[in-house]
Design goal:
The protein is an all-alpha fold. The protein has 12 helices and no strands.
């Protein structure tokens, strides 16, 4: 049973709630410095993940082909539209609702801890890694929610669905996700998180959502050429 994923979703909900409560008490200068701190932290996280790359050419072409696919199917527009419809349904007045939902989703769901932790739980009931991730995500959600608002809290739902799904299908995923594939996926995910950091700091507008197909492309290319 995906108990670890459930705990992970709950820590994000609790952390986001704390962040939302703190957000109302912060003056604009404090919100601004938190925003910059989250941006710098996100850059460091992205670099740490990206350095796990094992085949640089596959890494680059995964981002290129993934970005082309994302642009052709207008993935970012579709995701923003979904977020905006959810915002309207909830009657939220938060101006950064959709951005927060997408940003938190990418940070929480992309990385080796997501895949390895969920697989370990499903195969042998070892929840050590996924519970460690739950604690980290809980603290991260406090900072993110204080910047982005309610959208961060709602990212707990796709987080649970993805991790729980991997746990329930762990037997099939074990042989599929080799160390090489996990490292390559983590590196591509790190590049996406680097893009989020650049967006947060206003350095460069990166369409991170349109690059998401790169996570699938890197699996295909690694299986063929890795």
């Amino acid at each position: 049973m995906p108990i670890g994923s459930l705990v992970n979703a709950l820590t994000v909900i609790v952390g986001s709630t704390i962040g939302l409560l703190l957000r109302k008490k912060f003056p604009e200068n404090i919100k601004s410095i938190i925003f910059e701190g989250v941006g710098l932290g996100t850059l460091v996280l992205g670099m740490k993940m990206a350095f796990q790359v094992e085949d640089f050419l596959i890494f680059i072409f995964s981002l290129i082909f993934g970005g082309i696919i994302g642009e052709l199917i207008h993935l970012e527009t579709w995701m923003e539209g979904m977020g905006d419809r959810l915002k309207a349904r909830l009657k939220s007045q938060d101006g950064r609702f959709t951005e927060g939902l997408i940003t938190a989703f990418l940070i929480f769901c992309v990385g080796s801890m997501t895949f390895v932790g969920a697989i370990n739980e499903g195969l042998n009931g070892d929840r050590t890694l996924i519970l460690t991730k739950a604690i980290l995500d809980g603290f991260t959600s406090i900072a993110l929610a204080s910047v982005y608002g309610l959208g961060v809290l709602l990212s707990a739902l796709p987080l649970f669905i993805i991790q729980a799904g991997i746990t329930l299908l762990a037997g099939q995923f074990q042989s599929f996700f080799s160390d090489l594939i996990i490292n390559q996926m983590t590196a591509v995910g790190g590049a996406l998180i680097l893009g989020i950091g650049l967006n947060l700091l206003g350095i460069k507008r990166v369409k991170t959502s349109n690059l998401l197909p790169g996570l699938l492309v890197v699996i295909v290319l690694t299986l063929i050429f890795g």
